[in-house]
Design goal:
Strand content: under 5%
Order of helices and strands: HHHHHHHHHHHHH
Distance between the termini: 30 Å
Number of strands: 0
Number of helices: 13
Oligomer: single chain
Largest sheet: none
Shape: globular
Amino acid sequence: MLRLAPYAEFARKAFAREATYRIEVFTEIASLILRVYLLRSLWTALYAQNVTPFNLPLHAMITYATVALLMSLVLEVDGTRVIRQKIREGSIATDLMKPISLPAYFFSDGVGQTGLHALLVIPSVLFALLLVHIDVPSPDVLAAFAFSFLLGYLVNFFLNFLMNTIAFWTLETFAIQLIVRWVSDLLSGQIIPLTFFPGILGRVVFALPFAAIYSTPLLIYVGIIRPAEYGHYFTVQAAWLSFFGLLSAFMWRAASTRVVVQGG
């Protein structure tokens, strides 16, 4: 049975490590505030030209874009990128001999890093409120958003884990991650709502795993996804989570065997 205490300590140390870079913390907050201002100006100009996504008035669109930026503070932290570094250094072989679960370590390290970034949401929201009006839904909707965000966070973790595990075969994953990042930025709903995509194209992008990361929690927050539809969208997120979780377990087992073979 997996003992949680060591991994909680790993998360605590990762949080402390991230907190030492105070300049980066303040820079990230300032960058987010600037992006909120630019997005408000952009969407205001687009709405003035009647370029509007389905069923989203301007104030809801600004709320959507702002919440998406706040979510990115957490979702863009990749605790699994150290896999690639350890493989290049060769230290992954000795790490595999330690009496811990390395995937659980990567997850707890990522949780510690995202813990600090999650705290940055508070001052970021306060400053953002000086620039834009953010709608706040009912407690029930906020709870559904939080649950959907958690599922999206886990899907995102396993997607990053899979991409970095490929380094066992390729040694480098930067190009793969860059391509997936570009596709994800466009098709996850982070930049523009997926309701922008018409007809069959819209149905396709909603069915992709990227939608489970950003689009579903965001559309719940702004009310496009109604309470009666929560069960369906949660099921889709859980299905992608199960798929990537099982695929990650298979890939990690194959990768661990490969290291043993390489070492003789």
